[in-house]
Amino acid sequence: MKEIITKGNIAVKVKAVNWEQAIEEAGKLLLNSGSIHEKYIENMITSVKELGPYIVIAPHIAIAHSRPDHTVIKPDLSIITLEKPVEFGNKDNDPVSIVFAFSAKENDGHLNKLTDIAALLEDEEKIEAILRSEEAEEVYKIINGRIS
After folding, report:
1. Residue 49's Cα: distance from chain center in Å?
2. Which CATH number covers residue 128?
3. Strand ranges inside 36-75, DSSP E
Protein backbone atom coordinates (compact mmCIF):
# COMPACT_ATOMS: atom_id res chain seq x y z
CA MET A 1 0.00 0.00 0.00
CA LYS A 2 1.42 3.39 -0.94
CA GLU A 3 2.11 6.01 1.67
CA ILE A 4 0.05 9.13 1.01
CA ILE A 5 1.61 11.13 3.82
CA THR A 6 4.61 10.59 6.07
CA LYS A 7 4.39 10.57 9.86
CA GLY A 8 6.62 13.62 10.12
CA ASN A 9 4.17 15.66 8.04
CA ILE A 10 1.29 15.33 10.50
CA ALA A 11 0.48 17.47 13.53
CA VAL A 12 -2.68 17.44 15.63
CA LYS A 13 -4.36 20.02 17.85
CA VAL A 14 -2.15 22.81 16.51
CA LYS A 15 -2.69 26.31 17.90
CA ALA A 16 -3.41 28.98 15.30
CA VAL A 17 -5.05 32.33 15.93
CA ASN A 18 -5.92 32.97 12.26
CA TRP A 19 -5.81 31.44 8.80
CA GLU A 20 -2.33 32.80 8.03
CA GLN A 21 -0.90 31.06 11.06
CA ALA A 22 -2.77 27.84 10.17
CA ILE A 23 -1.16 27.84 6.71
CA GLU A 24 2.21 28.67 8.24
CA GLU A 25 1.97 25.73 10.66
CA ALA A 26 1.02 23.28 7.88
CA GLY A 27 3.80 24.72 5.73
CA LYS A 28 6.40 24.32 8.48
CA LEU A 29 5.93 20.56 8.25
CA LEU A 30 6.87 20.68 4.55
CA LEU A 31 9.80 22.95 5.36
CA ASN A 32 11.04 20.63 8.12
CA SER A 33 10.85 17.65 5.76
CA GLY A 34 13.09 19.43 3.25
CA SER A 35 10.37 19.69 0.61
CA ILE A 36 10.16 23.49 0.31
CA HIS A 37 12.07 26.67 0.98
CA GLU A 38 10.59 29.04 3.57
CA LYS A 39 9.46 31.43 0.81
CA TYR A 40 6.91 28.81 -0.34
CA ILE A 41 4.97 29.32 2.91
CA GLU A 42 4.77 33.04 2.13
CA ASN A 43 3.65 32.17 -1.40
CA MET A 44 0.77 30.04 -0.05
CA ILE A 45 -0.43 32.89 2.17
CA THR A 46 -0.07 35.43 -0.65
CA SER A 47 -2.17 33.21 -2.93
CA VAL A 48 -5.09 33.39 -0.50
CA LYS A 49 -4.66 37.13 0.00
CA GLU A 50 -4.72 37.69 -3.77
CA LEU A 51 -7.30 35.09 -4.84
CA GLY A 52 -9.51 34.75 -1.77
CA PRO A 53 -10.28 31.67 0.34
CA TYR A 54 -10.61 29.33 -2.65
CA ILE A 55 -8.46 26.79 -0.79
CA VAL A 56 -11.34 26.05 1.61
CA ILE A 57 -12.71 23.27 -0.58
CA ALA A 58 -15.16 21.54 1.76
CA PRO A 59 -16.73 22.21 5.15
CA HIS A 60 -13.93 22.63 7.69
CA ILE A 61 -11.13 21.72 5.22
CA ALA A 62 -8.50 23.85 3.48
CA ILE A 63 -5.82 22.75 1.05
CA ALA A 64 -3.01 25.32 1.07
CA HIS A 65 -0.69 25.46 -1.92
CA SER A 66 0.98 27.80 -4.35
CA ARG A 67 2.21 27.66 -7.92
CA PRO A 68 5.17 25.37 -8.59
CA ASP A 69 8.40 27.36 -8.70
CA HIS A 70 11.99 27.39 -7.41
CA THR A 71 10.75 27.45 -3.79
CA VAL A 72 9.62 23.80 -4.13
CA ILE A 73 12.33 21.21 -3.64
CA LYS A 74 10.13 18.12 -4.01
CA PRO A 75 6.43 17.20 -4.13
CA ASP A 76 5.01 16.60 -0.68
CA LEU A 77 1.90 16.76 1.50
CA SER A 78 1.26 17.71 5.12
CA ILE A 79 -1.81 17.88 7.34
CA ILE A 80 -2.62 19.59 10.59
CA THR A 81 -5.73 19.57 12.71
CA LEU A 82 -6.39 22.76 14.63
CA GLU A 83 -6.98 22.98 18.36
CA LYS A 84 -9.66 25.58 17.60
CA PRO A 85 -11.15 26.16 14.13
CA VAL A 86 -10.27 29.40 12.31
CA GLU A 87 -12.12 31.51 9.77
CA PHE A 88 -10.69 31.79 6.26
CA GLY A 89 -13.49 33.98 4.92
CA ASN A 90 -15.34 31.25 3.03
CA LYS A 91 -18.97 31.62 4.14
CA ASP A 92 -19.96 28.17 2.87
CA ASN A 93 -17.18 26.10 4.46
CA ASP A 94 -15.80 28.05 7.45
CA PRO A 95 -14.58 27.53 10.07
CA VAL A 96 -11.60 25.34 9.11
CA SER A 97 -10.37 22.56 11.38
CA ILE A 98 -8.12 20.60 8.98
CA VAL A 99 -5.41 22.19 6.85
CA PHE A 100 -3.53 20.27 4.20
CA ALA A 101 -0.49 21.85 2.56
CA PHE A 102 1.10 20.48 -0.58
CA SER A 103 3.98 21.31 -2.82
CA ALA A 104 4.47 20.38 -6.47
CA LYS A 105 7.43 20.83 -8.83
CA GLU A 106 5.37 20.97 -12.05
CA ASN A 107 1.96 22.38 -12.89
CA ASP A 108 0.42 18.90 -13.12
CA GLY A 109 2.61 17.44 -10.37
CA HIS A 110 -0.05 18.03 -7.77
CA LEU A 111 -2.70 15.89 -9.46
CA ASN A 112 -1.75 12.63 -7.73
CA LYS A 113 -1.77 14.29 -4.31
CA LEU A 114 -5.10 15.99 -5.03
CA THR A 115 -6.55 12.66 -6.14
CA ASP A 116 -5.43 11.11 -2.84
CA ILE A 117 -6.92 13.99 -0.85
CA ALA A 118 -10.18 13.88 -2.85
CA ALA A 119 -10.60 10.18 -2.08
CA LEU A 120 -10.06 10.91 1.60
CA LEU A 121 -12.54 13.80 1.60
CA GLU A 122 -15.25 11.57 0.18
CA ASP A 123 -15.05 9.42 3.32
CA GLU A 124 -16.88 11.39 6.02
CA GLU A 125 -16.11 8.75 8.65
CA LYS A 126 -12.37 9.15 8.08
CA ILE A 127 -12.61 12.94 8.24
CA GLU A 128 -14.50 12.66 11.54
CA ALA A 129 -11.90 10.21 12.83
CA ILE A 130 -9.10 12.63 11.87
CA LEU A 131 -10.87 15.45 13.72
CA ARG A 132 -11.20 13.28 16.84
CA SER A 133 -7.58 12.09 16.72
CA GLU A 134 -5.35 13.07 19.59
CA GLU A 135 -2.10 11.78 18.07
CA ALA A 136 -0.33 12.15 14.73
CA GLU A 137 0.20 8.39 14.56
CA GLU A 138 -3.56 7.87 14.55
CA VAL A 139 -4.03 10.36 11.68
CA TYR A 140 -1.18 8.64 9.80
CA LYS A 141 -2.96 5.30 10.03
CA ILE A 142 -6.33 6.76 8.98
CA ILE A 143 -4.95 8.56 5.94
CA ASN A 144 -2.76 5.71 4.76
CA GLY A 145 -5.55 3.18 5.11
CA ARG A 146 -4.04 1.13 7.88
CA ILE A 147 -7.14 1.53 10.03
CA SER A 148 -10.68 2.58 9.19
Report:
1. 17
2. 3.40.930.10
3. 56-58, 61-64
Domain contains 146: no
User: Exposed (0-12), middle (13-18) or buried (19+): which is 124, by Cβ within 10 Å?
Assistant: exposed
* CA distance to 3, 117, 140, per residue, from 58 (Å): 23, 11, 21
Distance between first and last Cα of the chain: 14
Beta bridge partners of 61: 58, 98
Q: Which domain holds residue 67?
A: 7-140
pLDDT single digits (tens) 59-107: 999 999 998 899 999 999 999 999 999 999 999 999 999 999 999 887 6
Angle at alpha carbon of residue 68, lines to 50 and 101, rounded to 5°: 70
Residue 80 near residue 22 (C-beta atoms within 8 A): yes
Residue 145 lies inside a defined structural domain of this protein: no
The arithmetic mean of pLDDT across residues 33-42, rounded, is: 97
Q: Is the pLDDT of residue 54 over 90?
A: yes
Determine how many CB atoms are found less than 10 A away from the CB of residue 26. 28
Please state the rounded mean pLDDT for residues 108-126.
Answer: 74
